[in-house]
Amino acid sequence: KGSTPERGIPFNAASSLTRVYAVASGKGGVGKSSVTVNLACALAAKGLRVGIVDADIYGFSVPALMGITQAPTRVDEMILPPVAHDVKVISIGMFVTGNQPVAWRGPMLHRALEQFLTDVYFGDLDALFLDLPPGTGDVAISVAQLLPKAEILVVTTPQVAAADVAERAGAIAVQTGQKVAGVIENMSFLTLPDGTTMELFGSGGGEVLAKRLSQTVNSSVPLLGAIPLDVALREGGDIGAPIVLAHPKSPAAVALLAIADKL
Ligand code: ADP
């Protein structure tokens, strides 16, 4: 059964002031989830009301990155999302017991996402982030249907070859009529102890992707920023303390905070 219009999805309404960002990537491991939680925490730290929907069904990692171990609570028909670092978080991982693999087909994913968006009580939000699974799957299409006003942020590495797969993730927007808000390049370089920088994964991928997507979607897609490799980012993720809060002066945090300012 679908959601009734009265209940609806508040973030869907044309009058809703909530900015909705769907964070996408071509492949896994490029830092999509790390970017999502840090941008969310950066906006929350500025006083905005922020939520995250972790829709990365196969690799849900948002609860761990946010340091959340508690389950959502239920009040009548409503699901109350746990809150960490002033961000309300709901994850598909909170509904899976143990380490069971999730083997859902498209319609089940769609229903799960729809339930998240209708039954989870986020209250009024200024910004809602969706952490999409990597690639161009059913979830991205469901998000487009359920939240047509969601804007897409594409995370990629500097490897130009990786831009091809990332381009497909962004190009879905043409089919769905969504806006691509920008490209974020992650793992752009590593600063060595002697102060020199090393481009471990090559360079130019973010710029190439932004240019190509601008052509594909036929409107300007900005490169919002380049985030360096930073041990503090990985460590913060491992202990559930996002770097923008735990080490705001570290190189990756500075880059992430500058990107958050552009949203
Ligand atoms: P994805 O969501 O794309 O699969 P994650 O955000 O889970 O990627 O990141 C994958 C791994 O890489 C994590 O261990 C994360 O801490 C690490 N990582 C991501 N970005 C950086 C970075 N800029 N510097 C250091 N480690 C990073």
Polypeptide structure, described:
The protein starts with 18 loop residues before the first strand and ends with a helix. Helix content is 37%, strand content 20%. It contains nine helices and twelve strands. The chain has one domain: P-loop containing nucleotide triphosphate hydrolases (Rossmann fold, 3-Layer(aba) Sandwich). The longest helix has 17 residues, at 160-176. An eight-stranded mixed β-sheet has the order 5-6-2-7-1-8-9-12, with helices on both faces. A two-stranded antiparallel sheet has the order 3-4. A two-stranded antiparallel sheet has the order 10-11. With 263 residues, it is an alpha/beta fold. The chain binds adenosine-5'-diphosphate.
